[in-house]
Design a protein that fits this description.
The chain is built from four helices and three strands; from the N terminus they run E-H-H-E-E-H-H. The chain is α+β, with helices and mostly antiparallel strands. The protein folds into two domains: about 60 residues, YefM-like domain (YefM-like fold, 3-Layer(aba) Sandwich), CATH 3.40.1620.10; about 30 residues. A three-stranded mixed sheet has the order 1-2-3. A hairpin with a 2-residue loop joins strand 2 and strand 3. The chain starts with a strand and ends in a 20-residue tail after the last helix. The mean pLDDT is about 75.
Length: about 120
């Protein structure tokens, strides 16, 4: 049986609670200010839980060894740079679209000489 007991009760009645745990197989959940903070269980249950925890840690360790190493942060930097370039290209495309809307005027002054391909000389 699992039951809850405040920390003060556990402190005052530890011997009695240990007997309940040892001989009846009970478990005690210790509360502090109404929150569950710890548990007292019999040694057989503790050893089973500890073995499960160790096995799980070994499995996680073995899995971590078989996984390829994580890529360095350099890849994140290049992704950020690519995003910035894409945003820059988008702004450039919008600017060029606006320039195409500007009407040509005979009296406009252009200080650059242009070749037959439309490039500045």
């Amino acid at each position: 049986m699992v039951r809850e007991a405040p920390a003060m009760t556990v402190r005052q009645n530890l011997g009695e609670l240990l007997n309940e745990i040892q001989y009846r197989g009970d478990s005690i959940v210790i509360t502090k200010s109404g929150k569950r903070v710890a548990a007292i269980v019999d040694i057989a249950l503790f050893e089973r839980l500890h073995t499960i925890d160790e096995d799980r840690a070994l499995q996680l360790g073995n899995r971590a060894q078989t996984l390829p190493p994580a890529p360095p942060n350099e890849h994140l930097v290049s992704i950020d740079a690519a995003q910035a370039d894409a945003e820059g290209f988008g702004r450039l495309a919008a600017l060029l679209a606006q320039i195409d809307l500007i009407p040509e005027r005979e009296d406009a002054y252009d200080p650059l000489p242009w070749d037959e391909h439309g490039l500045p000389q």
